[in-house]
Design a protein that fits this description.
The complex is a heterodimer. Chain A is α/β, with parallel strands linked by helices. Chain A folds into 3 domains: 107 residues, 3-Layer(aba) Sandwich (Rossmann fold), CATH 3.40.50.920; 174 residues, Thiamin diphosphate (ThDP)-binding fold, Pyr/PP domains (Rossmann fold, 3-Layer(aba) Sandwich); 55 residues, Alpha-Beta Plaits, CATH 3.30.70.20. Helix content of chain A is 37%, strand content 15%. Chain A has 16 helices and 15 strands. In chain A, strand 5, helix 6 and strand 6 form a beta-alpha-beta unit. Chain A is globular and about 80 Å long. In chain B, strand 2 and strand 3 form a beta hairpin. In chain B, helix 1 crosses helix 6. Classes of the chains: A alpha/beta, B alpha/beta. Chains A and B meet through strand 1, helix 4, helix 7 and helix 8 of A and strand 2, helix 2 and helix 3 of B. The complex binds iron/sulfur cluster (SF4) (2 copies). The site of one iron/sulfur cluster has 10 residues of chain A, from helix 14. One iron/sulfur cluster binds next to helix 14 of chain A.
Amino acid sequence: MLRPTTRVSHARASVTLSGHYMDQRFPHFEKRPERWVMVPTNARQRHVELNKIQPLLCSELASLSRLDLKKSQLGVVTSGIAAKYVEEAVMKLQLEPSLLRIAAYPIDAGVIAALVNNSSQILVVEELEPVIEEKVKALAGTVEVFGKFTGHVPREGELTVDVVLQSLGEVIGRFVTTDVPAELIAAEHALPSRLPVLCAGCPHRATFYALKKVFRKSAIYVGDIGCYTLGVSQGTIDTTLCMGASISMGSGFDAACGGVKNIVSVIGDSTFVHTGVPGLINAAYNGAKMTLVIMDNNTTAMTGHQPHPCTGVTATGVCNAPTPMEDLIKAIGVKGLYVVDPYNLAETEEAFIKAKNGDGVQVVIARRPCIISVKKAGALAKTKKRVTSTCQNYFASCKLCGTLFCPSISYSDTCALISEDCVGCGVCEQICEFDAIKTA
Amino acid sequence: MVREGKFDCIIVGVGGQGSIFASGVLGETALREGYAVISAETHGMAQRGGTVEVHVRIGSSYGPLIPLRSADALVGMEPAECLRFARYLSPKGTAIINTHVVPATGRDYPSVGDLVQALEATSGRVIAYDATRLALEAGHSQTLNVIMLGTLAHLLPLSTLEDVIAEYVPKKALEANLRAFKLGQKVVKA
Ligand code: SF4
Ligand code: SF4
């Protein structure tokens, strides 16, 4: 069982593949219904089998764990990425504890017992919940066990070498301190923050602006996972849970408070084809009253622009006929379907008004490619827009264009400024009430 | 400069400045020259605008995260971001800092002079210059990361960084990037 902690998932390293992984494989499937068809009679028997193989599994996996016994009162049990932090920390402390690196679950009791018999104190260092620690505690007898339960290892947040140094220090009563100079800490605390924002010219920004204008603050905006989660700054994302939840939770919200609140679900095109479709069938069939906005930028932007079935490119990069999004939605039986260009605010708002007043499930597809894809394709026509100074006096207090949260818009004391990296989407021009932003 | 064939480096910047590309090229070069390489990145969810932090460890057998006050070099594509991660730089380490500001939100942006001073007071050496201006001189603002790699090069135990960069950048941007690497190198030669 692989425990994918933050640092395992967000690290790269040189890896040597053993020949084993490059073996030619010959697929075959053996028909054994009693093994593969989990109807209750078979499942009951499989449960017996599963319990039977546990000890076998334990002893076989135990050979993957590494136990280095040393002449030390202290034993450290660790696993995964945390083992690397422990190695570096004991090097810095010039400490030689016995070290047990657990490689797999279920954990073999024998290997823990071997460490317990050799130690009078044990520190358990693991990421996430104290799963290993619980097992060690159960087998430790009178040997003291330190870790997350005793507060020696923090229960939340990511482990680092410095955190482990502190944990070890508290157990052995000796510290290697790394003093970050106070002036550096002070300077760091005074820094402005830098939160991620939608790109300049991101079509989502325009969609959110129109959405907020029509559905107001009072609607419940049920969000999903993608760049558009950042719509939270525009006040048009109220929840984000897991992929597809925007639609299924949306119909749940409608069941709970429909009629009192407008329900707006927001999902991206790739998330929609990934897990949105079953939720939409359920909502439409069971008669939910809600608006679904599909923010269709023709890619999976957040994770690095992977294709999906509506793009016409397969997972291996081969061209294929795209899954027809509109046909799919119509076949599901929604009551209204509109396709708009989010850069055209008037058109987008009009569709939202119709959806708001319509029956049942209404779907608005806001379609415009991700600006990064456009840039990568070299297709960005640089039509820069400049703020003219004719309305200087209003700007200090107006800042209406600021509600777009476009990173290319900033303010001086007297007026709005458009920076270099503006892509000229023209959305701010459409919202300025003083005609102060013009396409040059 | 190098501790027995080991080099710990932190590259930071704002999303879109190419910190991850720079770390990838650095790691690839080290790998080809026979070093073990491990790196880790932390960045926001959108493509642009957030803080990006990459740890690169060359010749290390430990985990990817560099402990506090121990990095040999800190490369900051943006001054405030550089200071945000200065706590990782060793008191003997070198900070290479682009003085060109990318505006941020919330508190007022501190003076770049103060930021550089805070680094100077707490690290071995600070190389501060307007790398964005140099990138424009090279032909494109996107070559900023290669400018900074050019300056970092003299500290590294590596000799083929320029070749790997040439291999990794898009063909049409090759000339500008090679110019950028040279301009970055000249910052320390001058
Ligand atoms: S990557 Fe694309 S979808 Fe994501 S914020 Fe940028 S423009 Fe928008
Ligand atoms: S036109 Fe306006 S909204 Fe669009 S990218 Fe430029 S500054 Fe931002």
